[in-house]
Specification:
Strand order of the largest sheet: 7-6-8-9-10-14-15
Number of strands: 15
Helix content: 40-55%
CATH topology of the largest domain: Rossmann fold
CATH superfamily of the largest domain: Response regulator
Number of domains: 2
Radius of gyration: 20 Å
Largest sheet: 7 strands, mixed
Oligomer: single chain
Distance between the termini: 52 Å
Length: 385
């Protein structure tokens, strides 16, 4: 079964060789486990692009302490079982120093324990579900937790639209959407917002009219959607078909061009919280956006920006590590250097913070970063102030 899986990925094995060059030329190999095919590819391809751009920049300046960075990229297809296979390949066969990814929180819960057992850093750039960094001391992320972002997003949306009551819809079979729902539920209760009804769906559903008809009956002022972009876009289209004009409130799963490719202007007035905005005019973000557009011919998104920053975070940590050539020792040394890193990147000022303590267990590190609240206007997100 494993050999068939690896054969199926032959095209992405070629991509890995192209990025790495050759085993002899590669000074520091960093693994990237990203969803390059399947529904989550709308996030994974942007993530791969962000890593590639950052690695090219670091290497163009001579690398880190004279060592070039080489990316070994594998497609985990947004599936838990594939993420496990890819992590094992990168850690034990390719012998990378660190693994970035996987794309979805569902997959991280499956694969990150492998990295922790092997004493290899698993660095998430798009995993925002609660509990990710509780899996062990080698789990890091620069993706800001929904628990940090959603309360801010909700407060701003409530004020902007004068919201008194909302309906909620969420995916009940995905770690990210379920975690987002739990945060929204607690937030709405704390902010004393009435919930007229709560509906669920399963990943891959395309017909939401039954749930939306029930939501319409409650006449909410807004719809809270803990969803990934594709399902959210179809939900938005179908609400408009039913004559519903309520704004949406969502998490960073909506922060993808795919949302507007499907929903068009039906997504307008959606409020979404994120650590990144294309309107952030800092020199670091302007340089990132210009370089990304020049290299890939399209505008970046949040997921590209977080991957880009993650590579620079690791490069900053490596600058303080004297690599010994003993892989096990160097993996731990990189892990020990990461918590002290502070940068100002495309997503703004970034530092790590220790994850909340779990009795009898070592934990990893979360992102310490401020949220930006955005609103969709004319098919794109702009800052809501």
């Amino acid at each position: 079964m494993q050999s068939k899986t690896l054969l199926k990925k032959s095209s992405f094995a070629l991509l890995s060789v192209c990025l790495v060059g050759s085993a002899i030329a590669a000074d520091v190999k960093l693994g990237v486990a990203a969803a390059l095919t399947g529904p989550a590819a709308k996030y994974g391809i942007a993530i791969k692009n962000g890593f590639t751009l950052a690695a090219d920049e670091v290497n163009a300046k001579g690398g880190v302490n004279g060592n070039k960075l080489a990316l070994v990229v594998e497609d985990e297809q947004g599936k838990k079982e594939e993420a496990i296979t890819v992590f094992k390949k990168l850690i034990f066969q390719d012998k990378v120093l660190l693994v970035f990814g996987p794309t979805l929180s569902n997959s991280a819960f499956a694969a990150d324990p492998i990295a922790n057992s092997a004493h290899v850093v698993a660095f998430g750039t798009s995993n925002t579900a609660d509990g990710i960094t509780a899996m062990g001391p080698f789990t890091f992320r620069n993706s800001v937790m929904e628990a940090d972002v959603l309360p801010v997003t909700t407060r701003v949306a409530v004020k902007h639209f004068g919201i008194k009551k909302v309906a909620v819809i969420y995916g009940n079979d995905d770690a990210f959407t379920k975690s987002g729902y739990e945060v929204f539920k607690a937030t709405l209760e704390k902010q004393k917002i009435i919930v007229t009804g709560t509906e669920t769906y399963a990943k891959g559903d395309v017909d939401f009219k039954a749930q939306l008809t029930k939501i319409k009956g409650g006449n909410p002022d807004a719809i809270v959607c803990s969803c990934l972009a594709e399902e959210a876009a179809n939900i938005m289209l179908q609400t408009r078909t039913l004559g519903m004009k309520q704004p949406f409130i969502g998490g960073n799963g909506l922060n993808s061009p795919k949302l507007f490719e499907i929903s068009k202007k039906a997504g307008d007035d959606t409020v979404m919280g994120s650590p990144w905005s294309s309107e952030n005019a800092t020199p670091a973000n302007k340089a990132f956006m210009t370089a990304y557009k020049a290299k890939f011919g399209s505008d970046p998104d949040q997921f590209a920006a977080q991957a880009y920053d993650a590579l620079h975070i690791v490069a900053a940590a490596l600058a303080n590590v004297k690599l010994s050539g003993a892989l096990d020792k160097d993996r731990v040394a990189l892990r020990d250097a990461l918590p002290a890193v502070k940068i100002e990147g495309a997503t703004g000022k970034f530092t790590f913070r220790k994850a909340p303590a779990v009795a009898g267990k070592e934990v990893g590190y979360d992102a310490q970063q401020e949220a930006t609240v955005n609103i969709a206007k004319n098919g794109k997100f702009v800052q809501l102030k």
